[in-house]
Amino acid sequence: MVLTLVPLPSSVTTGPGAFVLTPATRIVIADGADAAASALSDHLAELTGLRPETTEGEPVAGDIVLRATAAEDEAYRLETTDRVEIAGSAAGLFYGIQTLRQLLREDAGSWTIAQVSITDAPRFGYRGVMLDVARTFFDVATVKEFIDRASSLKFNRLHLHLSDDQGWRLQIDSRPLLTERASGTSVLGRPGGFYSKDDFREIVRYAAAHHMVVVPEIDLPGHTHAIGLAYPGVVEEPVMNDMLLAQSEALGQPLPVAGEPYEGWGVGHSSVRIHEESTWEFLRDVLGEVAELTPGPQLHVGGDECLGTAQADFDAFIERVTALTVELGKTPVAWHEAGSAVVAEGTIGQFWGSDAPTAEHIEHTLRFAERGGSVILSPSTRAYLDMKPSPEDPLGLSWAAIIDLESAYAWEPNAIVPGLDESAILGIEGPLWSETIATLDDIDHLFFPRAAALAEIAWSPASAKDWASFRERVEALGSVWDAEGWGGQRPTPTEGSTP
Ligand code: ACM
């Protein structure tokens, strides 16, 4: 039997039997697992048409039992006997329910759950996905759909890339022109948009209900052309040098013009004015409001691709912006280039180099650990969900790699940055940049099935890694995703497989 489980649990044994969902099945809440019960009941009703009664009585054969424990971790146990019992903290119960959702199969008109005994806990505490809502704006409903998909694979961080050259996406009361003047466009003439503070709170609430913590990013000091549409005094004139001219030519896209929306996707031509105190007043106001809106512990301040900025200026900026972030009560996160600077103690670095990184990328990444921080691994040759899955795919870019499902799966976090100890690896993240995607269908197309590979790397024990097993399980999971109405690609069936 192929167990349709991704990520693979840390321990799973199977038996010959199966639990059958019937109209008599109840969800029995033990020790206050109410939130989990209502989410499960809604899911079962939607999928099967059966809405089990939710009760606090004594469980009997045929029931689904949710038992809340006092644990504060993400572990859970799921056992199928003559009933199904899931036990864990609130997060653990949520993950147990995601496992149950993957196990539910329709078989000759009945819904069944294979006989299993599962003990499960994640390998890494940070299991992220990133959505770039700056290059292309995605509305709240689409972000919620993205959360549904990601949380079903046990991802627990939603990194939102909220600002870039192409647009500013979050209401800031102290600087209202950001959304009034700098949010109206996206790349290639696509519509823009922004989140009001209430929209953002709704995303945070929905994410939290799915056990995902939002990590907002304001990309600095580069990727800031859009700020100049609203507050020209905060940014430098667009940088123009041979490298940037060549880039514009290679992309076949026009050069950025000060004060005009930029709809291409060249990088490295913009910067805030690093040595002006008025810039720092702006940043204190903006980052202060973002920090206040964000219940999660982390605030991402960017730091990537400042190609026209002198190293000393860049380092001075990073030192000060990470210190400011700490002052605002958040742990700074920054792309790995920021490791060239004296980052604030505890700053988290996000590595986005290749899986054969340069000496400089390695050195910068190790700095975060040396300064008491940790590292999120997003190797662009493996974990970038915006890379094409095949050379002929109409969506995605290919500057880092073509990443097929096996390539997305066949890497080990410990082996990416030489010298980085596993204890300094906070986790991994799959960024989905949005230069080539405009709709939820496009998101699904690049997300499925490769996000499942990243989910397994983030959650499952390294010792369980097995491409053939993963390939078979992810193939069988396609029907679960189909039943959810989720799009995207499915692996072509392997010979002799029985999904
Ligand atoms: C990045 O891809 N510029 C982080």
Outline of this structure?
The chain has about 500 residues and is an alpha/beta fold. About 30% of the residues lie in helices and about 20% in strands. Strands 1, 2, 3, 4, 5, 6, 7 and 8 form an 8-stranded mixed sheet that branches.
> Structural class of the helix and strand makeup?
alpha/beta
| Second CATH tier, the architecture of the largest domain | Alpha-Beta Barrel
The helix tally amounts to: 14
According to DSSP, the number of beta strands is 18
Main beta-sheet annotation? 8 strands, mixed
CATH secondary-structure class of the largest domain: Alpha Beta
Rg over C-alpha atoms, rounded to the nearest angstrom: 23 Å
Instruction: Write down the CATH topology of the largest domain.
Output: TIM Barrel
> Could you list the spans in which at least 5 consecutive residues all have pLDDT below 50?
none
How much β-strand is present in the residues? 15-25%
Total domain units: 2
For this structure, what is the CATH homologous superfamily of the largest domain? Glycosidases
Shape: elongated
User: Which ligands appear in the coordinates?
Assistant: acetamide
Question: How far apart are the termini?
Answer: 9 Å
Overall pLDDT metric: 95
Helix fraction bin: 25-40%
